[in-house]
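Table S5 (text form). Sequence records supplied for joint modeling of the two-component complex.
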Amino acid sequence: MSVLELVANGLIFSSILVLGSIGLSLIYSIANFANFAHGDTMTVGAYSALVTFGAVGGLGGSVLGLPYGFFVALLVGAAAAAVVAIVTEKIIYESLDIGSIGLLITSIGIAFIYRGIIQIRFGADFTRFDIGALRPIEWLVPYGVRVTLHDVAIVISAAVLVGGLHVLLQYTDLGRKMRAMADNPDLARISGIRTKRVTLWTWIIGAGLAGAGGVFLGLFNQLAPRMGFNLLLLIFAAVILGGIGSVYGAMLGGFLIGMISQLTPVLKMVGIPIGIEYANAIAFVIMVVVLLVRPNGIAGEAT
Amino acid sequence: MSLRNDAVDYWSDLTRAEQGVTGSIVLFAAVLLFGLVTGGLNPTYFLFLVGLAGMYALMSLGLNSQWGFSGLINFSVAAFFGIGAYGAALMTSDSSPLLGGFDPIFGLVVALSVAAVMAVLIGVPTLRLRADYLAIASLGLAEVVRLLVLNERQWTNGSGGVRGIPRFFDNWPVLSTFPEAMPGLEIVIIPGSPIELGTPFYQMVLNISLVVAFVAASYLVLRRAHRSPWGRVLRTIRSDEDLARALGKNTYSFKMQSFVLGSVIMALAGVFYAHLNLFVSPGDLNPITTFYVWVAVILGGSGSNRGALFGGVVVVTIREGTRFLNEFAWIPFDTAPLRLLLIGVLIVLIMKFRPQGLLPPQRELIWPDAIAGSETEPERHTNQRPGGDANE
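The corresponding structure-token record, covering 695 residues in total, follows.
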């Protein structure tokens, strides 16, 4: 494997992580707790897309090697994740008055409920989207980079989503309110922002992006009930590295953690005997180090 | 008559929650007894379940001394359990890739020492963190431990696991031959389904006495520690760390002590598991164990040692009880995810309706002499506090 290919893989994996990290970071800062169900929200999105894609089929043409039907499924997956998150927030989280630690523990229960239901319906085995695997893009192979059009589609779609979020945050009313709330919820409320409504929108956006991330993760690897939970700690690592509450930090953190975990084989190339099996371990150690040295993350204000 | 009056007094002394828990324990015991008598429940298997319950009770006690006493959110229970299990396995197994062949007592000492050292190593960086960061960091470090056990094949035999672990009492003078020496019994209560008690049953009896000894020792130590001045400092840290610091306590040091103590007890559960199962594999370090133990502690009541015992038993009932469901043909799916779902629902229900747990600590925290010594029978008052939560 060439370094270039590792970088390409890192880019793809980062795109998925970024989608997960943004939502986790938003919810962490606005709903004010570490949501352990976030990974399983991604799984919900992936499986909803699987069902939708099975139902609507390809719908004729295709873009970047992906049939139109897949993009419909992507939207449905994101929407389903958002709906599930909203329902959970309305039924469970909103009525609880037990502090952020209690909410954290509750969210573990929620994660198990999501995963249990998915596993009851689909079994514990791996599945895939019914899309044929593509051959690597021809003109990149001589450079030692073997990526398919699907991978390109993941990166482009993620970039579009992240760009859209940027526009939303910077240039719309809702975005300003969200940033104000992430900064200081009490001040935002005193200023006349309807914080409950903004919280709801935060859940919709965060979970929707997570759902889309889950769909891409299913396309990149495969689908399994554990896929989201397995990714959760990496997402936490990304969010903490970037700085909790900072959306742009989460993007940067997701990018860095994705790159680091995919570039682990480079360590062997330069003579450090740490193999790919420790890719996640490295990310977790980085997370702990960041927590110790710079708990506000690289993008957060140093206080 | 006085015996009966004592019983009635005792019963009316209990809080509503205690009465409910006592009632369900009695009911549950009756069901188990019925199963044993009718031969529906194999006595050897039953004792195995008791062993598992003891194991979970140990881990819950350990976690309770971290989360319940000093409010440390430790999500690395499975890692310490695994360290205990692997420590004992690698020291004692005859096919161990590392050392091996030592006496189980030596294995026990080594496993607990390694767990204590690991607790310090994990604790030094993480115990200064904010509560929710500690949760994430400890879960991450537990994963690192699991990956190390899985991948360092030259030390741990990787995913193959470690076999050939001796039973705990194999080197002891009388106990090593006790299971073979005991006569095989066959008790017929219901004609057609006799209850057989053979060598495996007596081996299990030995295992159970081991875990009962572990649990009893840990319980007594923790109960004493919880009431002591040391325990009071921990409780202060839990409710207000700044206050404890203002009172001149080195809170970091106290938190570290409680973290190491709890981790060693979790490792003790692992040691028992290694000698019960006679096989350990990296799958035993799966984070799901951590969450099972968390359910046990918050169900029982954070900070309550007897609650931790009770929670441990409930969790094993859920874990093993759902396995039986597979025998009903009308359930059209594997019941493993049902277990996950059940645990999830249980967590949400506790947090929604009874976040303090079923048996929150009340009298447990009061020094017994303080009650007995006063003339005016304050016991009833401390006891009757409606839904009171003495440590909050």
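Note: The two ends of chain A are 42 Å apart (CA to CA).
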